[in-house]
Amino acid sequence: MTETRPQPLPQTPLLQVQDLGIRFGGLHAVRDVTASLQPGRITAIIGPNGAGKSTFFNLISGFYQPTSGRITFRGEDITRLRTHEVVGRGIARTFQTTTIYQELSVLDNAMIGHRVRTRAGLLDALLRTGRERRDEEESRAGALRALDRVGLAGQATLPAGALNQEGKKRVGIAMALASDPHLLLDEPAAGMNPEETVNLMGLIRDLVSGGLSVALVEHKMSLVMGLADDILVLHHGQKIAQGTPAHISRDPAVVEAYLGSHAHGGQMGQEQAGRTQGTGVNHA
Ligand SMILES: Nc1ncnc2c1ncn2[C@@H]1O[C@H](COP(=O)(O)OP(=O)(O)O)[C@@H](O)[C@H]1O
Ligand SMILES: [Mg+2]
Question: Which ligand does the CA of 23 lie closest to?
């Protein structure tokens, strides 16, 4: 996909959600969320386990259809678009390391990312239809550019399964970048050690310096404080705060939510017990 998209005007939010909500039966997983994401920034979405973070991503990426509200991306209403249409507008989500094809080369994985994101689906990507063959060179070029961006150009011919966890995560990011998105949604996978996590945060920073905007669900509060430009805090499906890390760490509602979830045995932003350390809201 080589269409060039005009850059957003300064001051125009990249993404806006207005009164966004979704119910699953009686449960309001996301409720009345109104928020903006600015271009050229890293926006972190945090909140206790069950706060609605993943659901929020699923709504933005078109995986779920909201039961209320509106989503606007670069001035266009994308509320009712399907996942591949959302990708076509320039929003991509990183592939989980579990969806990487271990036996295929790093390059083939990145090419699959290109096709999944720009075509009808995975089956289409795996079955080489005539159209796919015609698009092969374009896919290869896009995939190679994406691998270069994530620092994997030198490993393109290796089987993806030969990479360590950080390398696989980079492949997952490359698969998403192959569609040349404006906005990357990233929900870090479990199983990264602290050094790998720091490396990946450096990569995210570099990508943003290169013009990408990133929204990420981050489990480690301390990393969010050091990395994010803007933090959106969800609690029980609702937005309770949005602002800079300094602002958020002083917000009484955030501190309350954090302490409340802590009292119930879960630290804010820590969804998998034992995976993280030092996630306290004051550990900035
Ligand atoms: N497909 C679904 N069907 C029913 N309930 C769901 C579904 N997806 C999420 N939920 C519920 O919505 C709430 C928010 O979940 P989620 O967005 O995964 O939270 P988080 O990512 O912040 O931990 C939880 O109570 C969860 O059980
Ligand atoms: Mg989640």
Answer: 1
Q: Does ligand 1 lie within 6 Å of residue 48's CB atom?
A: no
Checking 198-207 for CB contacts under 8 A at 24+ apart, the result is 199/166, 200/166, 200/169, 200/170, 201/226, 201/227, 203/150, 203/151, 203/170, 203/173, 204/42, 205/42, 207/149, 207/173, 207/177
Per-residue pLDDT tens over the stretch 123-155? 666 666 666 566 778 889 999 999 999 999 999
Q: Which of 23, 24, 56, 221 gets mutated to test ligand 1 (max ligand atoms within 8 A of its CB)?
A: 24
Shared domain check, 108 and 73: no
pTM greater than 0.70: yes
Q: Is 55 in the pocket of ligand 1 (CB under 6 A)?
A: yes
Provide the β-strand partners of residue 37.
15
Whether residue 172 sits in one domain with residue 104:
yes
Would you say the CB of residue 31 lies under 6 angstroms from ligand 1?
no
Q: Which residue has the tokens 């001051």?
A: 11
Q: What is the dihedral sign for C-alpha 253, 69, 270, 94?
A: negative
For residues 97 and 158, state if they share a domain. yes
Number of structural domains the chain divides into: 2
pLDDT at position 113 is: 79
Q: Is 52 left (phi over 0), alpha (psi -120 to 50) or beta?
A: left
Q: Which domain holds residue 166?
A: 93-180
